[in-house]
Amino acid sequence: RWSKSHKGGRDEAVMSSARKVDVNVCAESFHKVIADGVQQALSEKRSRPKLVGFLANDDAGAAMYARWTERACKRDGIAFELRRVERVMLEEAVIEANDDPRVHGIIVYYPVFGGPIDDYIRDVISIKKDVEGLNHRYRYSLYHNIRTMSDMGDRKCVLPCTPLAILKILEYLGAYERSKPVGSQLQGKQIMVYNRSEVVGRPLAAMLANDGATVYSVDVTGMLVYNKGRVPGTLKVEETVMSQEDALSIADIVVAGVPSKKFQIDSTHLKPGVLAVNFSQHQNFGPGAEEKGIFVPAIGKVTIAMLERNLIRLHADWGDDGATGSPPTGSCEARGSSARPRDAVALGLLVAAAAGMAYLLRGSRM
Question: How high is the pLDDT of residue 320?
Answer without folding.
Answer: 65
